[in-house]
């Protein structure tokens, strides 16, 4: 085996901000793989410090305690590459801007920060002629930022459907396969290192919405921020929803959807029924997948581990190597691409299919009244399934529509609610990915 090439070039100084689930794995890999990394970069990478809140807190054996410091500002001033793995908006934003100000390139996994204030970082980095890399911010280990930013930049992306939050995919999967309730499954995801510091960000869809904003910005060359994303989490998904999804040939997934229509760009995150024959339906556990539809490339799917320390560290290290190579060879990461500047549409303009479950009186003429509520809003029904309910002479209807506007469906739901024969609208879920 060829021995790693040792370089005469001076070491590139790498600073790590944060030493939690991801940061500790980045520190480990930087140390364990230092020879290979030096060969791949053309210069050694020297970890010069790790900023933490508490230098005395217990750490894994892989972390060199001599590198720990509570002085993050001092650390960023003496680095060529700053890797931010603290999370949150502040002090992460100020530290990254300070690093850029000192001429360092930056790598971050912080989708919350990028979705809120990414453009300020990109502009500062462009002005300073340094790199901003963030592969780990979307779908962890899965290469998706680089493919959208570089590999697919000669194509026209039309639509992206993603399972981009490992915690919620894990939770929905455990509900479906083990009958766990939401809280039990979230606790497991926390123990496994998938969940955000506050798992509400996962469960309520904020994490996926931040990733959706980043994906949409890259895919459509248009600035999309967190506030532009229509967001619903999984707290309303019940065990019965999961059971009925399976009964009707679907899986329940929290999807991030970014699509270009004739009028602009629509970006939304919500639980959805995915037909079992769609590749996204088979994405189990904490795995992530991003399904891209592009004009020339056709359909692509990127699949792998979207959360967890080592997988996320893999994406971070890839970015560190890219930034380090630019220090050695010259060159720069692509600038923010926002020339298309498409309007970001109100969610009421989106079109999708719906599946609604209703409890209705089981007597003549009920189906006619119910279907009238759909046709009054111009919505075409694809299928109706009726099952008897033991109690009170009721029946359950499971109705799936063809494509309908959000506004049209809202009108239908209101009309259904007003019908005396409708006892309850038990659940409404969108259906995505029908082919
Ligand atoms: N865990 C994952 O699977 C995963 C996957 C992809 C992206 N991310 C992102 O990576 C980042 C880090 O996530 P994590 O799971 O490692 O979080 P974590 O909570 O395990 O670690 C964060 C670390 O940063 C430190 N920190 C926070 N504020 C600090 C401050 N002001 N000064 C010094 N240190 C500070 C904390 O003490 C902690 O050690 C987040 O932006 C997260 O969204 C995480
Ligand atoms: N909390 C996130 C980590 C990856 O960003 C998840 O569950 O997917
Ligand atoms: Na990624």
TrEMBL record:
L-homoserine binds at residue 196. It catalyses: L-homoserine + NADP(+) = L-aspartate 4-semialdehyde + NADPH + H(+); L-homoserine + NAD(+) = L-aspartate 4-semialdehyde + NADH + H(+). PROSITE patterns: ACT (PS51671), HOMOSER_DHGENASE (PS01042). One of its GO terms (biological process) is threonine biosynthetic process. Gene3D superfamilies: 3.30.70.260, Dihydrodipicolinate Reductase, domain 2 (3.30.360.10), NAD(P)-binding Rossmann-like Domain (3.40.50.720). Its EC number is 1.1.1.3. Pathway: Amino-acid biosynthesis; L-methionine biosynthesis via de novo pathway; L-homoserine from L-aspartate: step 3/3; Amino-acid biosynthesis; L-threonine biosynthesis; L-threonine from L-aspartate: step 3/5. InterPro entries: ACT-like_dom_sf (IPR045865), ACT_dom (IPR002912), Asp/hSer_DH_NAD-bd (IPR005106), HDH (IPR016204), HDH_cat (IPR001342), HDH_CS (IPR019811), NAD(P)-bd_dom_sf (IPR036291). Keywords: Amino-acid biosynthesis, Methionine biosynthesis, NADP, Oxidoreductase, Sodium, Threonine biosynthesis. Pfam families: ACT (PF01842), Homoserine_dh (PF00742), NAD_binding_3 (PF03447). One of its GO terms (molecular function) is homoserine dehydrogenase activity. Its cofactor is a metal cation. Catalyzes the conversion of L-aspartate-beta-semialdehyde (L-Asa) to L-homoserine (L-Hse), the third step in the biosynthesis of threonine and methionine from aspartate. NCBIfam families: PRK06349.1. Belongs to the homoserine dehydrogenase family. This is Homoserine dehydrogenase. It comes from Luteimicrobium subarcticum.
């Amino acid at each position: 085996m060829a021995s790693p090439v040792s370089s005469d070039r001076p070491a590139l100084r790498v600073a790590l901000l944060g030493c939690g689930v991801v940061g500790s794995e980045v520190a480990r890999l930087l140390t364990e793989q230092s020879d290979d990394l030096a060969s791949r970069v053309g210069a050694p990478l020297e970890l010069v410090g790790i900023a933490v809140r508490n230098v005395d807190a217990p750490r894994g054996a892989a972390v060199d305690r001599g590198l720990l410091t509570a002085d993050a500002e001092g650390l960023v001033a003496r680095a060529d590459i700053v890797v931010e793995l603290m999370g949150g908006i502040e002090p992460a934003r100020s530290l990254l801007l300070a690093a850029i100000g000192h001429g360092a390139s930056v790598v971050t996994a912080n989708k919350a920060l990028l979705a809120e204030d990414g453009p300020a970082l990109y502009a500062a980095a462009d002005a300073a002629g340094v790199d901003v890399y963030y592969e780990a911010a979307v779908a962890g280990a899965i290469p998706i930022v680089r493919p959208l930013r570089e590999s697919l930049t000669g194509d026209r992306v039309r639509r992206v459907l993603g399972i981009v939050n490992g915690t919620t995919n894990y939770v929905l999967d455990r509900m479906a396969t083990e009958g766990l309730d939401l809280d039990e499954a979230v606790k497991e995801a926390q123990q496994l290192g998938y969940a955000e510091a506050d798992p509400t960000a996962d469960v309520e869809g904020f994490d996926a919405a931040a990733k959706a904003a980043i994906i949409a910005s890259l895919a459509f060359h248009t600035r999309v921020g967190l506030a532009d994303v229509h967001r619903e989490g999984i707290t309303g998904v019940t065990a019965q929803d999961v059971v009925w999804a399976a009964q009707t040939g679907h899986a329940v997934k929290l999807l991030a959807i970014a699509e270009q229509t004739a009028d602009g760009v629509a970006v939304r995150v919500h639980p959805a029924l995915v037909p079992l024959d769609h590749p996204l339906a088979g994405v189990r556990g904490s795995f992530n997948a991003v399904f891209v539809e592009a004009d020339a490339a056709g359909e692509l799917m990127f699949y792998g581990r979207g959360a967890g320390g080592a997988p996320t560290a893999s994406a971070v290290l890839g970015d560190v190597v890219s930034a380090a190579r630019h220090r050695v060879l010259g060159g720069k990461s692509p600038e923010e691409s926002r020339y298309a500047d498409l309007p970001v549409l109100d969610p009421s303009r989106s079109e999708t299919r719906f599946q609604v479950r209703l409890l209705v009186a089981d007597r003549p003429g009920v189906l006619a009244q119910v279907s009238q509520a759909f046709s009054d809003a111009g919505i075409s029904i694809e299928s109706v399934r009726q099952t008897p309910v033991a109690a009170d002479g009721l029946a359950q209807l499971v109705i799936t529509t063809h494509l309908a506007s959000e506004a049209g469906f809202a009108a239908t739901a209101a009309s259904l609610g007003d019908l005396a024969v409708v006892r309850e609208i038990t659940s409404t879920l969108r259906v995505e990915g029908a082919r």
